[in-house]
């Protein structure tokens, strides 16, 4: 690999005077795009070759000037290549408020998530306390359980502990309450 | 001259006339050396100068001087012309004849102060360096063709063109 690169680097001179052709020139140009020292060397050698051209100056045929000027007047010029930097500039003008808005939105989302987490924590704590209370009743030495069928269908269960002074009432299979009564209860 | 090309890119014809007066001579002289035939040289020169007008916006002073930008276009066009002609001729004759050597290539160097310095610097090269560079640049030959003309190996010619140009660069005080 090293030998190959050295070999390519040697071509800076031949490239500067257009003495490479075809695929070899393409290969070298590909290399040139990545090799900064090669590019610098080619530039210096081209400037040197230009001195050789200036030394060979000869008077062009006098009619050439008028012809070139007339053709130029009738030839549209290429527009400049637009650099990426120039294209990015107007985007920067509106990207700043956009970034600020994004920060505000993200901050809002973070706060909402935090609040939701605290609320969930509180609900969990309440549920845990309830579970503990029920467990305490069930574990009491004087616990008594009574189950009876309800007149409207389903069953009701009562768990009582005199020592704990607590009673748990739970039902299963009860019919759904009509909406009106459900709201009056709530 | 770099600033003039910026004006040319904006469509300033007066600036283009000044660029022409400064660089048409060197461009035509270089093209004559490579192409030889006066009528064809005039044609190629016209193409080159029109390309300077058309593509002036692509000139980047950070990548080299205005003169070098124009001479690079001129040399590229001139070598393209002779190489496509050579290819066409080879197709016709089916003979793998090496083109005639450009032995008088360095003779037409004008005796201006700059040209005097160039000649002095060329004299400071080894024969092989000088012949390789002269054949490649003024003769428009590829380095394998130069190797064929001089009867040397390819890697020798590649190396001689490079170290010869580096010696010329340092002799002429070209900024890197």
Q: Could you give the topology of this structure?
A:
The complex is a heterodimer of chains A (186) and B (176).
Chain A: H1 2-10, H2 12-16, H3 22-34, H4 36-55, H5 63-73, H6 84-139, E1 144-149, E2 155-161, E3 166-172, H7 179-185
Antiparallel strand pairs in A: 1-2, 2-3
Chain B: H1 2-9, H2 13-35, H3 38-54, H4 66-93, H5 113-123, H6 127-137, H7 143-150, H8 154-172
Helix pairs in contact in B: 1-2, 2-3, 2-4, 3-4, 5-8, 6-7, 6-8, 7-8
How do you describe this structure in short?
Chain A is 65% helix and 11% strand.
Verbal overview:
The complex is a heterodimer of chains A (186) and B (176). Chain A is mainly alpha-helical and 186 residues long. Chain A has 7 helices and 3 strands; from the N terminus they run ααααααβββα. Chain A has a 3-stranded antiparallel beta sheet, with helices on one face. By secondary structure, chain B is an all-alpha fold. Chain B has 8 helices and no strands. Chain B has helices at residues 2-9, 13-35, 38-54, 66-93, 113-123, 127-137, 143-150, 154-172. Chain B is globular, with a radius of gyration of 17 Å. Residues 95-111 of chain B have low confidence and may be disordered. Classes of the chains: A mainly alpha (186), B mainly alpha (176). Chains A and B meet through helix 2, helix 4 and helix 5 of A and helix 2, helix 3, helix 4, helix 5 and helix 6 of B.
């Amino acid at each position: 690999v090293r030998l190959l690169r050295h070999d390519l680097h040697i071509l800076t001179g031949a490239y500067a005077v257009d003495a490479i052709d075809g695929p070899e020139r393409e290969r070298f140009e590909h290399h040139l795009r990545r090799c900064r020292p090669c590019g610098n060397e080619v530039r210096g050698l081209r400037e040197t070759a230009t001195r050789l051209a200036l030394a060979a100056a000869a008077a062009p045929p006098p009619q050439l000037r008028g012809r070139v000027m007339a053709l130029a007047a009738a030839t549209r010029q290429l527009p400049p290549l637009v650099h990426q930097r120039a294209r990015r500039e107007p985007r920067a003008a509106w990207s700043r408020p956009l970034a600020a808005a994004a920060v505000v939105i993200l901050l809002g989302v973070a706060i909402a998530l935090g609040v939701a987490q605290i609320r969930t924590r509180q609900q969990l704590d309440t549920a845990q306390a309830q579970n503990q209370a029920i467990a305490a009743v069930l574990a009491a030495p004087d616990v008594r359980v009574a189950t009876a069928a309800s007149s409207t269908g389903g069953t009701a269960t009562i768990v009582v502990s005199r020592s704990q002074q607590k009673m748990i009432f739970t039902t299963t299979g009860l019919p759904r309450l009509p909406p009106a009564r459900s709201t009056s209860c709530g | 001259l770099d600033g003039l090309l910026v004006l040319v890119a904006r469509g300033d014809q007066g600036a283009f006339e000044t660029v022409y007066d400064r660089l048409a001579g060197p461009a035509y002289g270089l093209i004559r050396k490579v192409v030889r035939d006066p009528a064809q040289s005039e044609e190629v020169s016209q193409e080159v100068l029109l390309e300077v007008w058309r593509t002036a916006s692509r000139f980047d002073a950070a990548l080299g001087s205005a003169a070098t930008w124009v001479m690079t276009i001129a040399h590229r066009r001139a070598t393209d012309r002779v190489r496509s002609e050579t290819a066409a001729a080879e197709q016709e004759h089916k003979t793998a004849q090496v083109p005639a050597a450009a032995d008088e290539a360095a003779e037409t160097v004008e005796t201006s102060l700059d040209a005097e310095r160039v000649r002095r610097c060329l004299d400071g090269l080894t024969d092989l360096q000088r012949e390789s560079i002269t054949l490649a640049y003024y003769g428009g030959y590829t380095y394998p063709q130069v190797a064929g003309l001089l009867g040397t190996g390819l890697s020798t010619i590649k190396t001689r063109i490079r170290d010869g140009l580096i010696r010329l660069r340092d002799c002429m005080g070209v900024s890197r």
